[in-house]
Amino acid sequence: MEKEKILIVDDQYGIRILLNEVFHKEGYRTFQAANGYQALEIVDQHSPDLVLLDMKIPGMDGIEILKRMKVKDADIRVIIMTAYGELDMIQEAKDLGALTHFAKPFDIDEIRAAVRKYLPLKAN
Prior knowledge:
The protein is an alpha/beta fold and 124 residues long. 45% of the residues lie in helices and 22% in strands.
């Protein structure tokens, strides 16, 4: 049986590694992308069930990545991560269908709980 798939999109290596380790341990299949182009390629190739998407990414920003992901897969579940104070971006992302958001620095247990809520692991 295939595991639920999570795509982690963040230009900060340390954050990608941390989230990757946490969700891999939880039992999810994880993918990482450092930018929008990599992220969209992974969406095409692996159809992740849920995306943890940082909004502040050089090049293609989080809003643009989210828009393009939703074009490829209208049902893709996306949780966004932002720096404090990016309220207009958060609202726009929610209008585009983002499920919820976390401000950085985030609490890993809160993100873990949100992922479990929006992408429950199937009993194997």
